Amino acid sequence: MGNLHDGHLALIRKAKKYADFVVVSIFVNPLQFSPNEDFSQYPRTLNADCKLLRNLDVDIVFAPDEKILFPVQQEILVLLPSIANKFEGKFRPGFFCGVATIVLKLFNIIQPDIAIFGKKDYQQLHIIRLMVQQLNFPIKILDVETIRAADGLALSSRNQYLDKAQRQEASYLHQTLKNIINDIIAGQNNFSLLENKATDKLSERGWKVDYVSVLNQETLSPVHTRDKKIVVLAAARIGKTRLIDNIEIHR
Amino acid sequence: MGNLHDGHLALIRKAKKYADFVVVSIFVNPLQFSPNEDFSQYPRTLNADCKLLRNLDVDIVFAPDEKILFPVQQEILVLLPSIANKFEGKFRPGFFCGVATIVLKLFNIIQPDIAIFGKKDYQQLHIIRLMVQQLNFPIKILDVETIRAADGLALSSRNQYLDKAQRQEASYLHQTLKNIINDIIAGQNNFSLLENKATDKLSERGWKVDYVSVLNQETLSPVHTRDKKIVVLAAARIGKTRLIDNIEIHR
């Protein structure tokens, strides 16, 4: 969606490494915003973005007007399985349908061999992989680790909505996930206890927590005793700004 | 779906004319059958089909096992606009979702420049064109006129379900559409009257009519006074066999 930061640039550096022709799409996708969300205020900085992309020697920036992608009202959409209504999907109804539909359209327009997504939007990456498999797209999906500020806050265009005090507090979301990981490494198996403890602690500090969930990495379903690959997902609001983050652990 | 007749062969001849490499897909698609429909008894004649296709000098026959297209339960589907719940979609719930999803999968596997569909499945052709437009598939859709038996019956694999008497009566569906067209050419503007008259006549003769509808060719919505391009769609059952047909008219 543009307003590029080092997280996006990491995607592009990976693309340059794996592909001999790199297309960057920049499009603030109205389909994935609810009416009460920040579509109109979402930061749009195309000129600055293009300067950064020129430095990275990108071949094409595809930044279409809305009328190009939606010449008529989009009435054909991607119908997703129930995982799309959990976690992010529960708190942002229609979000993943909007994401999957625009990604499918961009796939068909750009026809990439490889497409690259960040792990910060962990559930999104999961759903895009599902879509590529189940709809037989001839596209290899690569992921990129989340890029963080020095204090651990995951980079996000929405971080600029934060005032100074909020920005300082924001890194506590990452700290929360690290605490859970440490408890799991220390042998804690009661994941709902960890989720609830984290939620309570965030709430005490003034966050409005949407979810903190300890999940199987590959299915995003609850962790079974023998599961080795775990991910902790979280979403919470600080003031009016909604932040998400996640950490993986291989126990 | 295979069990090839001259209608299918007309599609392939058109493909050979427009493309230098022709792939024929043959797959009886479980997604588009309701539980009470004829999925298990649908005629499968792959060896005979391949002989016909060899004569036509087709490059590839893609006839995958179900496990190839559905290694896991298909949980990502194409969500279609309300037109998909009318006419065929009203009497075959989920039919167009199943069709659109398999066609999308085949598009991604085969990656054709051109795809060819018959006009006999008129609403299907309409929905596939919509899908290609709205999901930005880089594919040109070509259509082929319905091929008919000498008495006017549209060729269909399901015609072989008919016994001798039913086969004789079956051509009356096409006759019904021709009668409507003649009335329109003669100046009749009361389309519901024509629809009802046709339905009554078919019912008197023992047909169970699903619908007879006079529509705008391009939108499949009711005809406005100034519309020039009209199509009449019909679906009706004779015994247990469900037949569909349509005629276009440019008035």
From TrEMBL, chains A, B:
Pfam families in UniProt: Pantoate_ligase (PF02569)
CDD domains linked: PanC
Keywords: ATP-binding, Cytoplasm, Ligase, Nucleotide-binding, Pantothenate biosynthesis
Catalytic reaction list: (R)-pantoate + beta-alanine + ATP = (R)-pantothenate + AMP + diphosphate + H(+)
This protein's record includes keyword Ligase: yes
Cellular location(s): Cytoplasm
Keyword NADP: no
Active site: 8
Enzyme class of the recorded protein, top EC level: ligase
MF (Gene Ontology): ATP binding; pantoate-beta-alanine ligase activity
Pathway of action: Cofactor biosynthesis; (R)-pantothenate biosynthesis; (R)-pantothenate from (R)-pantoate and beta-alanine: step 1/1
Domain of life of the native organism: Bacteria
EC number(s) reported in the record: 6.3.2.1
Residue numbers binding ATP: 1-8, 118-121, 147, 155-158
GO terms of biological process kind: pantothenate biosynthetic process
Similarity field: Belongs to the pantothenate synthetase family.
Subunit structure: Homodimer.
Note: The reaction proceeds by a bi uni uni bi ping pong mechanism.
HAMAP family: PanC (MF_00158)
PANTHER family (UniProt xref): CYTIDYLATE KINASE/PANTOATE-BETA-ALANINE LIGASE (PTHR21299), PANTOATE--BETA-ALANINE LIGASE (PTHR21299:SF1)
Identification of the protein by name: Pantothenate synthetase
Gene: panC
